[in-house]
Design a protein that fits this description.
Helices cover 45% and strands 19% of the residues. Belongs to the peptidase S49 family.
């Protein structure tokens, strides 16, 4: 019976696999036969900017790959900005419509897109924005437009920034499962939720300062394009002066309250066509296919951009994980390529493994001996993310970048109380005094804790030294702005952790200046496997994603968030240089 069941299962599995391969073959034939001609940009067109997928700094896709974009869950910030740059000089594109976004990007990424749109407007082209509802970050992006419109029954969210931190001390006491914490730094609040039931004043102070700095940067940008003073924008936020379309118009946040068909009439008017004529739209996805084939910078000499994005974990790494394998390989290729005259390291990371951070730091130091290395910080470059950046010749951050958090910690789970409650008793046997390592089921011995504490202190001192050497600061100066404290890009400039405020393009220009280049091309590293390749290699991974989505639907977003935060600590192997918890800024 078992043989028959296994035999039938094998047949069904083979048929399923052949079916998938056949479908993929048809897709391949379709893509190869269609080629570049599928992208057609009409004269007198509007580029429709809809950003409804997760935005990463870089997808690593190869535009010559016929499968590029298939099964990709994210959009590349670099591709979005290139598309806007190409459209700026494309006579067929007369304007941009920012349409019904629910932008899934960090503040720094949103700010970078907004800056590109400002450059687009500077060419004399128009930008209009419309939404059925504007979330706060959506409105921040839309505020760059010449005119902003909202649905008559829509909603505009404009109330200031906030974040929420979950605390687990009481949960540990009730469950009998405890996180043993060893740390350095009075501000190292990544572990505070496991030690306290309430937020410390030190943590509240740093978060308040951070949020205020980010908010100030946002309203400064909005004030310039909407001609509303910063003080009035704060009053609007405090009084919820944009909570209805009527109030949003009265307060000056938007220009008019219209239905979508009326909005299209305004677009037709901007294009100088009749209202009953069809508007030529080019979707962002289509235009990216076209713009990716355009070379904005060219020359025999090259500047390499190495993208490091995601948590820092020991190992190979990938599109959303910074591992020493893939990043160091990229740095070595850039360093040894004679045509590459300078390197820009783009960092977007909350940190992670201190060991991996130091291994990457060393490779940056070796590259710096050969050619200039400039760092561009994205949404976040904190803890380990700042560690790998600290040794560069020059560091750029966006005003809304979250950075700093110079500190280290270790967490070790302990189940002594739970084991006692359910009747588990663990006995250990060893040959030497220290042969028996830490046990989940026994109280942490003072000798083991002292051993970990010693490693924490040594790692923290190494971290301070790396920053001290890279930033030309004394150890005492670094320590005074360290202790795990997080800073905005604007604050980091004031305390000496970054050199200038600017985006990736600013960092590239600085690299060209240091390398004395007047003309140059761009080489991007690393190259990742396409989403299609990753899908075919790991169908189980796709299955796991389906399971995760089903679990989220079953238990709700908030409970799922708690579960994921608890699960993430399983990945925290070794000493961590990591951001204070997951900051979800709203």
């Amino acid at each position: 019976m078992n043989f028959l069941r296994n035999f039938l299962a094998s047949i069904l599995g083979s048929l399923f696999a052949f079916g998938i391969m056949f479908v993929m073959f048809l897709i391949f034939v379709s893509l190869v036969s269609s080629g570049e001609d599928t992208v057609s940009i009409e004269d007198n067109s509007i580029l429709e900017l809809q950003l409804q997928r997760q935005i990463s700094d870089y997808t690593g896709s190869n535009e010559l790959d016929p499968f590029a974009g298939i099964f990709e869950e994210s959009q590349g910030l670099d591709e979005i900005i290139q598309a806007i740059e190409v459209a700026k000089n494309d006579d067929r594109i007369k304007g941009i419509s920012i349409n019904n976004n629910f932008i899934m990007a960090g503040l720094a990424q949103t700010q970078a897109i907004r800056k590109s749109l400002e450059d687009f407007k500077a060419e004399g082209k128009f930008i209009y924005a419309y939404a059925d509802f504007f979330m706060q970050r959506d409105y921040y992006l839309a505020s760059v437009a010449d005119s902003i419109f909202i649905n008559p029954v829509g909603v505009l969210d404009f109330k200031g920034l906030s974040t929420e931190v979950l605390y687990y001390k009481e949960l540990q006491e009730k469950s009998g499962i405890k996180m043993e914490v060893i740390r350095h730094g009075k501000y190292k609040s990544a572990v505070e939720p496991y030690l306290e039931n309430n937020m410390s004043e030190a943590n509240r102070s740093q978060l308040t300062s951070l949020l205020q700095s980010l908010w100030n940067s946002m309203i400064l940008d909005i004030s310039k394009t909407r001609s509303i003073s910063e003080s009035n924008l704060n009053i609007i936020a405090d009084t919820l002066g944009g909570r209805t379309p009527k109030y949003a118009k009265q307060s000056g946040l938007i220009d008019d309250v219209v239905f979508y068909d009326e909005y299209e009439s305004k677009l037709a008017n901007a294009l100088k066509i009749k209202k009953d004529e069809d508007i030529n739209y080019s979707t962002l996805d289509d235009y990216v296919k076209y713009s990716n084939k355009k070379t904005l910078k060219s020359g025999d000499d090259k500047i390499a951009i190495v993208f490091a994005q995601g948590e820092i974990l020991y190992g190979e790494g990938g599109p959303n994980i910074i591992g020493q394998g893939i990043i160091n390989e990229a740095l070595i290729k850039a360093r040894e390529d004679d045509k590459v005259k300078a390197i820009v390291l783009r960092v977007n990371s909350p940190g992670g493994s201190a060991l991996t951070s130091d291994i990457i730091w060393r490779e940056v130091a070796l590259a710096k001996k050969v050619k200039p290395v400039i760092v561009s910080m994205g949404n976040v470059a904190a803890s380990g993310g700042y560690y790998i950046a600290a040794g560069a010749d020059k560091i750029f951050a966006e005003p809304t970048t979250i950075t700093g958090s110079i500190g280290v910690f270790g967490t070790v789970p302990n189940m002594t109380e739970l084991a006692g409650d359910i009747g588990i008793n663990a006995e250990q046997v060893g040959t030497n005094k220290n042969a028996v390592e830490y046990s989940l089921f026994e109280p942490m011995q003072e000798s083991f804790k002292n051993q970990i504490q010693e490693s924490i202190e040594e790692t923290y001192q190494t971290f301070l030294q790396r920053v001290s050497e890279g930033r030309n600061m004394t150890m005492a100066q670094v320590d005074s702005v360290a202790q795990g404290r997080v800073w905005s890009g604007t604050e980091a400039l004031e305390v000496g952790l970054v050199d200038e405020l600017g985006n990736l393009d600013d960092a590239i220009e600085a690299a060209a200046e240091l390398a004395s280049l007047s003309s140059y091309g761009i080489k991007k590293f690393p190259k990742y496997k396409s989403g299609f390749e990753r899908f075919m290699e790991d169908l189980e991974g796709a299955s796991m994603q389906i399971k995760e989505n089903l679990l989220k639907d079953e238990i709700g977003d908030e409970a799922y968030k708690v579960l994921k935060e608890l699960q993430s600590f399983k990945e925290h192997k070794g000493i961590q240089a990591r951001m204070p918890f997951a900051l979800d800024i709203k």
